[in-house]
Amino acid sequence: MNGKRFFLIVTTVLIMSLLPFGCRPDQPKLAEGVVFPVPEDFITEIDGKPVSLYTLQNKNGIRMDVTNYGGKVVTLLVPDRDGVLDDIVTGYHTIDEYLASEEIYFGALIGRYGNRIGNARFTLDGETFELAANNGPNHLHGGPGGFHAVVWDGELIDAQTLKLSYHSPHLEEGYPGNLHVEVLYELTDEDEFRISYAATSDKNTVINLTSHAFFNLAGEGSTSINDHVLKINADYYTPVDEGLIPTGEIAAVEGSPFDFREYHRIGDRVDADHQQIEYGKGYDHNFVLNREPGSDHMLLAASVYDPVSGRKMEVLTTEPGLQFYGGNFLSGNEVGKRGEPYLFRTSFCLETQHFPDAPNQPEFPSTLLKAGEKYETQTIYRFSVKRD
Fold this sequence. Notes:
By secondary structure, the protein is mostly beta strands.
């Protein structure tokens, strides 16, 4: 090798070693404003239990950060059609911001009962159980001390799998039974965020676990989600009263703003002159997924994409229902990871679930978990790129 060629090779290696993360050819491209959370900013103790930050990453560069405080998804970076990674979930970069936030559900695991229970009570085996009324007269998302607000035991199984465990004692938030819960977060090489839930109880109880990730496929921040295009595999939905408690009716979506059986831009009918839209201040409703009664196979529940970035997300689940929430209660009071306020309708949720108020609605699929039996359910958020 001659001296000139040797000099060029050495010089190139030195220059490449000095390039910042995100600029090297072998590193993924990051959208402007993306900053990774610092693990030290999550290290604390809450109720005597240690809080940490865990990072999962697949072979394609998709990355997710999770805190065991509430099982909250802190960041989720996925590529657009040009391969640029952006953070698509709302949230914060420090534990202090999560603790101070008015929006307590960003990215959280929800339990013991996701969604609402009317009049904050239910009857089981002839006994009435009183719950916290934390949403007007109703009970929401397991109560103020629900699973979103507890510290889970975290175990990093491998670079792509996190196990979260929690023991909920008898009558915690009013629910019967000592309940042991295990949740697996997996970031697969098929670009899927898989959530597997399992639980057992020593007494008959009710359970309805879900994830409350808030998404914006254009990148978290102040961009409206009204230009996202959504499809939901549901011929029916459950209308609600003024308190957003289901009336018990199973109504056809046909001819209504709730007909997402084909792709529709979210914003096209979000302000329609419709009583249900008025009650929810937009979309905040449970859709009855098109599955055979009693079946629990994995079903494609919904698909949504952002036409500008091309990011697409499919939701698959073993659950019978899907709550579509359009960010109608975001007020701009919360400032996100880019320093931008989270404004009205700048993120959406697709929460897989059993139906709201099912313990008080005998015609709805049952949420009963019998003592000694095992509760199991799974949801997948699958990411891809729409190129046309």
